[in-house]
Known about the structure:
The chain is mainly β and 406 residues long. It is built from two helices and 28 strands.
Amino acid sequence: MAYYRTVGTVPPKRHTQHRNEDGGLYYEELMGEEGFSSDSSLLYHRAIPSALVDSRVWALPQGKPEPNHPLKPFHFKLHDLFPGEEWRQTDAVRGRRVVLANADVRIAYVACGQPSPLYRNAIGDECVYVESGTGTLETVFGTIEAGQGDYLIVPRATTHRWVPTGDQPLRLYAIEANSHITPAKRYLSKFGQLLEHAPFCERDLRGPVGPLLSNESGDTEIYVKHRGNGSEGVAGTVFVTPTHPFDVVGWDGCLYPYAFNISDYEPITGRIHQPPPAHQVFEGNNFVICNFVPRKVDYHPLSIPVPYYHSNVDSDEVMFYCGGDYEARKGSGIGQGSISLHPGGHTHGPQPGAYERSIGAEFFDELAVMVDTFRPLEIAEGGRASDDGTYAWSWSGRGPQDGGSK
């Protein structure tokens, strides 16, 4: 999104000399998208940003995702992935458990208490939602304080690390794209400004504060997730650099990480039930991100406020339940930290009784982040480990585990 910022010291003109107090040159780095043809920023480093002293394999821990076959809906209980005090020894990068994945997006979860190593996702942008806890996102652009309800948009190849704060786990829901992530394009002008009908605006966005000049010295490791040649197309490398990358004295441009809190989203409502696109916030290649926030609901005298039963023939629907009381899922075991997967080809909707029970409701106190993908999702290691095993049969009340009867 083309929203210009400048932080620290930059020279009056691009690509000209920028010197320190001793007369030495700072090193200019262009970080840009789409081969010099889209948004970019210029960063000014104290040391050469290209310097390497070593490169070794980072063995990514997740196994290969498996097709959703035979096709069925799922309920994943993400809090079960980090039981007890395990989070205290976990960091936000190496501790991620991938739950669902396809060629366009990977959905992962982590509960962490340790600072992460320096990290760079060279495959695509990341949208990281903070379910609970507090922390600091430290980046080459500066720092962003993060807390419950924050979305953090981290552009592709941004060097950063997560530093949890406080005495509770920092719980992160990570949407890793194989593309860039932007606000919904229908909310943007042709020059990238958020329009009047958008449910949020630039005033709601928090950019990095900085610059962040690290006092750390010596060889520094950077964990890099990048394109690979394997079946998943994802590989890992650890770069070792002779200096710390947090040496940027200033930068300017339209490409940088930012935060947006879900409480600043202004819901769009109507007399009758509004479809999920009314709740959209971001999008990437072949997927969209929506959020369902506390809101007044349908006010037609004959309205049914919960969603109608629907079959999204072109998409898989992933719902992360992160607060409140989601009316349409009562009775299914879904609660805080749950994910539901409703795949294309399955007609889904409210649990039994919710359709009738919602009549007359005036307000829904619910909080959920939804990802709709336009290619089928596969079940990754974190999904297999957190599957409740029964959700698919929750509309009928019986399934194969009890001989088909209850």
